[in-house]
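[recover] target loaded
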């Protein structure tokens, strides 16, 4: 979504004006089917007392994850982690949109199979997946608003450099200044316009 990209570009400009060196990076290419087996195996390892009470999506994740061996998952995890960290190059952090698109409407995946629903929503995590896979520190900073919903930018650092990420997130928040969006109170009328507020799922 152009609005998500614009937020990241504005945040990058603000950091540049504050004296930081900002350069464009080529992201690490990774197909969804490379990431999926890793996350499925991880979820399959989580102890669940009442499996029958899970929603269709996590049940599908766990069932598929059991088809993967631990060694297969480990090799895929290590390879993808190395590629993700290498993409940072000699930079300290990577700044990106937090999500690639605005949140979908509630019920947009109703009636779809668990796999189809996941594939329809997976692009929401295009930028956050790197932190999930590598264990690298990341922080989302609210930056702008569209359709009554906040748009965030993500700061992703190297593994072990949590303090750098938190410090830069605080600085970026100060550069943005003010309140990005005021939470609605119970009883408030919904915001005007299509696709706002309660009509959308949270990202």
């Amino acid at each position: 979504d152009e609005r998500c990209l614009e937020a990241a570009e504005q945040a990058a400009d603000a950091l540049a004006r504050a004296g930081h060196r900002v350069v464009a990076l080529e992201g690490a290419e990774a197909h969804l089917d490379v990431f999926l087996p890793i996350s499925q195996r991880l979820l399959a390892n989580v102890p669940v007392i009442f499996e029958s009470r899970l929603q269709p999506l996590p049940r599908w994740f766990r069932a598929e994850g059991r088809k993967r061996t631990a060694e297969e998952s480990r090799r895929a995890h290590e390879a993808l982690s190395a590629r993700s960290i290498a993409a940072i190059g000699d930079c300290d952090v990577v700044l990106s949109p937090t999500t690639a698109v605005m949140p979908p409407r509630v019920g947009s995946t109703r009636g779809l199979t668990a796999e189809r629903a996941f594939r329809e929503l997976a692009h929401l995590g295009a930028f956050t997946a790197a932190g999930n896979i590598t264990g690298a520190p990341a922080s989302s900073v609210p930056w702008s608003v569209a359709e009554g919903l906040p748009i965030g930018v993500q700061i992703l650092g190297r593994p072990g450099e949590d303090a750098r990420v938190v410090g830069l997130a605080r600085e970026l928040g100060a550069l943005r200044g003010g309140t990005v969006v005021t939470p609605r109170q119970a009883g408030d009328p919904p915001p005007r316009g299509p696709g706002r507020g309660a009509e959308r799922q949270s990202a």
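[recover] notes: The radius of gyration is 19 Å.
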